[in-house]
Design goal:
The protein has 147 residues and is of the alpha/beta class. It folds into two domains: 65 residues, no CATH class; 67 residues, no CATH class. Helices cover 36% and strands 16% of the residues. The protein contains five helices and five strands; from the N terminus they run αββαβαβααβ. The protein has a three-stranded parallel β-sheet. It has a two-stranded parallel ribbon with strand order 4-5. The longest helix is centred in the N-terminal third of the chain and has 18 residues. It is globular and about 45 Å long. Pathway: Pyrimidine metabolism; CTP biosynthesis via de novo pathway; UDP from UMP (UMPK route): step 1/1. Its EC number is 2.7.4.22. Keywords: ATP-binding, Kinase, Nucleotide-binding, Pyrimidine biosynthesis, Transferase. InterPro entries: AceGlu_kinase-like_sf, Asp/Glu/Uridylate_kinase, Uridylate_kinase_bac. This is UMP kinase.
């Protein structure tokens, strides 16, 4: 059910982006050709070369892999420079959950090793390690803010 949920979210994001003129493609790790393309690395690269945004859905297609790990894996496969991580109501990485702890302090800059060593749960350890090994930056932003 979780993998299908990511497909629904990807299709909603695609609809939002295309409604403002941004060409977009959704690729999924499980086949459902009526609504999205299957993930094929070369095809994803071609879409990017043509200026399209590619949204990946359905995780890796295997259970036990988080969406964080999938994002890091796809970013690594495509030689991406950055992972953009949208959060609901949080505009960055904090030392505690700012929704729960009003004294939470926002970090201005962290390394992936900092995220792992400090136990910051912005993304799982596998995803942080994969991103670190492939020099992929992480930008966390509040998805509710415009602009």
């Amino acid at each position: 059910i979780g993998m299908l949920g990511t497909v629904m979210n990807a299709l909603a994001l695609q609809d939002s982006l295309e409604s403002v003129g941004v060409p977009t493609r959704v690729q999924t790790a499980i086949e459902m050709r009526q609504v999205a393309e299957p993930y094929i690395r070369r095809k994803a690269i071609r879409h990017l070369e043509k200026g399209r945004i590619v949204i990946f859905a359905a995780g890796t297609g295997s259970p036990y892999f988080s969406t964080d790990t999938t994002a890091a894996l796809r970013a690594s496969e495509l030689n991406a420079e950055v992972i953009l991580m949208a959060k609901n109501g949080v505009d960055g990485i904090y030392n505690a959950d700012p929704k729960v702890d009003p004294t939470a302090k926002k970090y201005t800059k962290l390394t992936h090793m900092d995220i792992i060593n400090k136990g910051l749960r912005v993304m799982d350890t596998t995803a942080s390690s994969l991103s670190m090994d492939n020099n992929i930056a992480l930008v966390v932003f509040n998805m509710n803010n415009r602009g």
